């Protein structure tokens, strides 16, 4: 299961390890394992680094996965960046955002069918709980931040997100 995969820890907002994510570098085959004791905690990529920024009232930028997270750091690295893993917000993610109520949630899900579906549901859920949010329509159909980085590096990312930062 794990041979040839990049493995990264998943932390709670307080900085405790709650599990790990694994995936191949060449293809999207994510695997997430979370400790049973962390069942109430939303699994976010980017914790606990984002928590201090969220406490400070920063806008939140949400992407799907690690490679998207790493790419977006080059554009909005001074802001709170979080990744969900799959292209959706779970009930736990939504409750976390309701509790901390950032000034804006910027949804940067992939520009594909799964990303659009996850984005639409996230906008619906966040609007229902009165958390300000917007969809970031970057790049072209089929793009994701990691792909934009692969094609154009930091310059490509700056260009794709320049209207939104």
Walk me through this protein's architecture.
This protein has a 4-stranded parallel sheet with strand order 5-4-6-7, with helices on both faces. A 3-stranded antiparallel sheet has the order 1-2-3, with no helix packed on it. The protein has helices spanning 49-55, 66-76, 91-100, 113-128, 145-161, and strands spanning 6-11, 17-23, 31-34, 60-63, 80-83, 105-107, 133-135. The chain is globular. The mean pLDDT is 90. It starts with 5 loop residues before the first strand and ends with a helix. It has 165 residues and is α/β, with parallel strands linked by helices.
Radius of gyration: 15 Å
How much β-strand is present in the residues? 15-25%
The strand order across the widest sheet is 5-4-6-7
* Overall outline: globular
Distinctive features:
5 helices, alpha/beta, 165 residues, four-stranded parallel β-sheet, globular
Question: What's this entry about, in short?
Answer:
With 165 residues, this protein is an alpha/beta fold.
Annotate the secondary structure layout.
Layout: E1 6-11, E2 17-23, E3 31-34, H1 49-55, E4 60-63, H2 66-76, E5 80-83, H3 91-100, E6 105-107, H4 113-128, E7 133-135, H5 145-161
Parallel strand pairs: 4-5, 4-6, 6-7
Antiparallel strand pairs: 1-2, 2-3
Helix pairs in contact: 2-5
């Amino acid at each position: 299961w794990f041979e040839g995969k990049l493995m990264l820890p998943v932390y709670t907002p307080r900085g405790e390890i709650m599990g790990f994510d694994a995936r191949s570098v060449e293809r999207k085959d994510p695997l997430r394992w979370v400790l049973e004791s962390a069942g109430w905690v939303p699994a976010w990529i980017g914790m606990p680094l984002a928590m201090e920024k969220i406490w400070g009232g920063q806008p939140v930028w949400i992407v799907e996965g690690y490679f998207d997270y790493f790419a977006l750091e080059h554009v909005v690295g001074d802001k709170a960046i979080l990744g969900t893993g799959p292209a959706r917000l779970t009930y736990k993610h939504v409750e976390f955002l309701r509790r901390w109520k950032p000034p804006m949630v910027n949804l940067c899900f992939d520009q594909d069918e799964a990303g659009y579906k996850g984005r639409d549901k996230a906008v619906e859920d966040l609007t229902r709980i009165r958390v300000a949010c917007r969809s970031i329509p970057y790049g072209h159909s089929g793009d994701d931040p990691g792909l934009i980085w692969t094609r154009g590096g930091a310059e490509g990312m700056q260009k794709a997100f320049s209207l939104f930062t």
